[in-house]
From TrEMBL:
This is ISAzo13 family transposase. InterPro entries: Transposase_36. It holds the Pfam family DDE_Tnp_ISAZ013. NCBIfam families: transpos_ISAzo13 (NF033519). It comes from Lichenifustis flavocetrariae.
Length: 295
């Protein structure tokens, strides 16, 4: 990025008679402004990208119309816990900025916060479990379990299925065996079919939770150092919008070790029905008592 001074020197070197003030005015006239990079490109799109979105949206609309629960899930960016700089600005008395550490080195006793989120489409409500361990499928499904136990089953007492939209990667990825096994255990516990639709590759930012929940959490805690898990939970819980968003947040202090292996034999026993269209992205996981199975 060239500064005003650098641009001025470059123009003078080409025999233009300009000063910094004129260069600044010319940039403003041409609608130029200082801007940072914007993360919008997620790689080449899959040829079935649009078809998958249509398939996903049709399923979601049908479930909502039937009064069935639909949730969007994902992991928010992990955050260092401690007196570290948090991006953004906030109003403070002049000359009294928040004092934070110069370097962002992990504080071993505090670690990283792992916020796994659920956004309930029909209720415009969020749930965040803040983990202290690994971002694993077991943690992801435990968050869904806690949401269902505490809120979901009371909100949807006549539910026959739970529809989940999720990114194609990470702890809830389409190829992650542990994600499917843990969801199957949950399906058996709550007695519901669990319908899963993964977003096509390279489209994670289009997941509803990203722009209906996570973005507002980021705005609510901008420029506020996340000095403790209590502060993180309070800031997330205080997130709201003019459209009435509410967020419940709790700490999950359980340990979720990485590296759990689900064998081919175990996968073959899971009662999963795969959709005719991209069964790797769209599938229904049944309670163990359901006889409809397809591996």
């Amino acid at each position: 990025c060239k500064s005003i001074s650098q641009l001025t020197r470059a123009l003078v070197a080409k025999s233009h008679r300009v000063g910094r003030t004129l260069v600044r005015e010319l940039l403003h006239r041409q609608k130029f402004s200082l801007q940072s990079n914007q993360k919008t490109r997620e790689g080449d799109s899959h040829p079935d990208r649009d078809a998958q979105f249509r398939h996903l949206n049709e399923s979601v609309r049908a479930a909502l119309a039937a009064g069935e629960p639909v949730i969007s899930v994902d992991t928010k960016k992990k955050e260092l816990v401690g007196d570290f700089k948090n991006g953004g600005r906030e109003w403070r008395p002049q000359g009294r900025p928040e004092q934070v550490r110069v370097h962002d080195f992990l504080i071993k006793d505090l670690g990283r916060a792992v916020p796994y989120g659920i956004y309930d489409l029909a209720s415009n409500a969020g749930w965040i479990s803040v983990g202290m361990s690994g971002d694993t499928s077991a943690f992801a499904v435990q968050t869904i379990r806690r949401w269902w136990q505490d809120i979901g089953q009371a909100r949807y007492p006549r539910a026959t299925r739970l529809t989940i939209t999720a990114d194609g990667g990470g702890s809830n990825g389409s190829r992650v065996r542990l994600w499917k096994r843990e969801l199957q255990r949950l399906a058996t516990e709550i007695g519901l079919d669990i319908v899963v639709h993964h977003l096509p590759p390279g489209t994670s930012k289009w997941n509803a939770i990203e722009h209906r929940l996570f973005s507002f959490i980021s705005m609510n805690w901008r420029a506020k150092p996340l000095v403790s898990y209590r502060v993180i939970i309070d800031l997330i819980s205080a997130t709201t919008t003019e459209t009435g968003l509410t967020v419940h947040c709790e700490l999950d202090s359980n340990a979720y070790p990485k590296g759990t292996i689900v064998s081919d034999r175990e996968m073959a026993t899971l009662p999963i029905t795969r959709d005719p269209f991209h069964g790797d992205w769209n599938y229904t996981i049944h309670p163990s008592s359901n006889s409809n199975q397809s591996s």
